[in-house]
Please model this.
Amino acid sequence: MRETPSDATVPYEPHIGQSRQYWRDIILGVNDGLVSTLLLVAGVVGGGLSSAIILLTVLAGAVAGAISMAAGEYLATESQREILDAELRLEREHIRDHREMEVGQLAEMFTDIGVSPEKLDVVVEAFSETDDVLLNSMKVLEFGVVDSEVRSSYKAMFFSGALFLVGSLTSVVPFLFDVSPVRGLAIASVLTAVGLFIVGWVKASVTRRNRVADGFANLLIAGFGGVLAYFIGDAVQRLIG
Ligand SMILES: [Zn+2]
Model:
């Protein structure tokens, strides 16, 4: 029984779609590019280098960061897929050797979902009709794997690396112009803060949350992380310097 009658006058709002799986890479990539590249600039500006050398350093850092980010995300996504593959191979063996136990688990999961005791037998029966059906049911319910939602390692790699580069731009761009190191750092800091706010704003537009609140939340969390990292780096430098 439906709790609210379906109403044809309410337009059907489409889902975010396949990009859903990559928003974490996009957010992580941009935020990391924004914060870590600015930290790199902050680190070298204190070293008395010329603006031209700082530009080269920051460019190298941005490219290295993007490659490292892309490689890390590729490996992480591949590892996740391999772990799930191994779990599903084991599940196939469980179904072969301990079918009753697996059907029992299935019944428990349907109870957790909220299927009523009267309908439980019928539902469990249908979802365990053959070994393949049971495996697919367990795949979704026990392991949370839906094939259309599986992340491509290549896309994850691309998004996190490319977006890291985009994020690093706020620290690169000021040094493309004839600025003093300190002024360049000041402009980069402002641009990075604006960038962090925009990341939160864009995310909130996709998730239909409060844009201003999410913009400031992202600015505060990532900004605080950056400030903390800067002071820890500074303290370590004082200790060993
Ligand atoms: Zn199992």
In short: Residues 51-97 form the longest helix (47 residues). Helices lie at 23-45, 51-97, 99-113, 117-127, 131-141, 153-172, 181-207, 211-240.
